[in-house]
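Render this sequence as a predicted structure.
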Amino acid sequence: MDATAALNEIAFWLERDRATTFKVQAFRKAAAVIADLPAEELAARVADGRLKRTKGIGDRTFEVISQAVDGGVPDYLAALRERGAAPLAEGGGELLAQLRGDLHTHSDWSDGGSPIEAMLEAAALLGREYLALTDHSPTLRIANGLSAERLTKQLDVIAGLGTDGGKGAGNGEAGAAGVRLLAGIEVDILEDGTLDQAPELLDRLDLVVASVHSKLRSDSRTMTRRMLAGIADPHTRVLGHCTGRLLNGSRGTRPPSDFDAKRVFAACAEHDVAVEINARPERQDPPDELIQQALDAGCLFSIDSDAHAPGQLDFLQYGAERAARNGVPAERIITTWPVDRLLDWARR
């Protein structure tokens, strides 16, 4: 087995299991160390012990590389594959099979841990047809949000990953991984309800996810007014993790924001903005009762992973389970749509 592929696949499974960043990065870094070595050179360095003394190679990663060089599937990878054969969520399998894409993902351009190419490769492994890259906007400095200049540079990179130009990446062909890469952003809804990026840049994107990330404990009236203004902006196509709650995880817990859900979901239905079912297990946002309110309001939905690493793209399993449990019809979930239909809708 290719040793670099083995290391990266191990990282994928660890990310899927929400392992610590330090543990995952040990395998990603080791893969980067050996990526450019010819097979014969790698085998020679394993045999004479040079690789074991190389910076970035630890005992476990050396064991994986050695077993791969010897022609077998490394024991550690085989164990992770066996564990990963079990689904992450019980139920929702039928709906999961209908999901074609993911409209909320992050790369190392903002607070994700991997390059765009690695996210695309993982999306291909999972059978996705399209993937929207939605790194953060500039006000979210803690997440290395993209300034107008950096977003412009990212659009050039996206355009080079198997696209033929036009408005964003969505007008191009599928990239080398066989996945259509869409140009997007997770843009902050600022306190005054405006979106945190230049309108002329938002015009160039295939898809805009708008989310609230600051002053989450504002009173209901203030938060409702802020969200309604963000939803009414014609660039907004998806309302991201609407309550902002955290149920567990390394960032601790956070209660949901207080807002008038009836008015917010009525606005989403009026402006044809999809309500995100954020699949991150620590978010599970919106709560079930709000999914029901959005359903009754006639809203569309988008099941998204909010992945910050390749293995987290498989979190869609959690979102599919929750949507199915709440009776959300597949035809009202925009991530079940073919990409051309999705893009036609997003441009309206």
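Summary. The chain has a mean pLDDT of 94. The longest helix spans residues 3-16.
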